[in-house]
Amino acid sequence: MNNLMTVKDATYHYSVCGEGEPLVLLHGFTGTGNTWETFSEKWSKFFKVIMIDLPGHGKTNVKSPRTMEQFCQDLKLLLDQLKIKKTHLLGYSMGGRAALSFALNYPDYVQSLILESASPGLKTGEERRKRREADALLAEQIMVNGIESFTYYWENIPLFETQKHLPAHIKKVIRHERLSQLPEGMAESLLYMGTGSQPSWWDKLVEVTIPVLLVVGSLDKKFIRINQEMKKLLPNAELVTVVKSGHAVHVEQVEKFDKIVMEFLEVHFIKKFT
User: Fold this and answer.
1) Phi-psi region of 245 (alpha: psi -120 to 50; beta: other; left: phi over 0)
2) In which band, very low, low, confident or very high, does the pLDDT at 270 lie, cut at 50, 70 and 90?
């Protein structure tokens, strides 16, 4: 079921299916809540699955751009309106950064955390400054050249090299999702919710005491290093590396990703699935 909810000066688009314990899903940069349609039918047998379009993406409309912390405030208010006091929270890439940010800002709302190819941000102020400069240039290019030019550029960055081997129909779906975005939304997302714009959470990871599942692809060397370091700092985390997968494990290894997520939730929280 598709819904719209007003939070301050924003209208968030989200989909809900199923009943049970809430499971909120946050997509990555250039995605939408539809990212999770592959899994929502099955997962909704056990959970109330909530798929949200992040600021600047899909059908969510924000009158003023959102920083990462402002989005977390919005998500808290959205959950309040849905009368959700505690949820499992899963995020991919940028959505993973958002999920971790939310868990640190509103720990009482999060029952468990699943982070796919995510990070706590950049460690140093210099790294963040350089990233902000790079993202500002990219945002300007998006506004000047349009979404089609940006989509061609984005699908050819090294991070998504492994997706070139996906079946044509899957690549078409990913491309369509990217092309559906508005240039203004993509630019604002980079400028306000990019890795260089958010706080570094490295020193705060020790405060995340809930169970955390870290998922990375074996071909995504950069995020393997990041997540290995995260695991050392998180008090209650497990790290799963999925073979023959790059950054987007949920796309490149669908069945393995489904199995890993469900096993984690079953072990920690749910009566045996039937």
Assistant:
1) beta
2) low
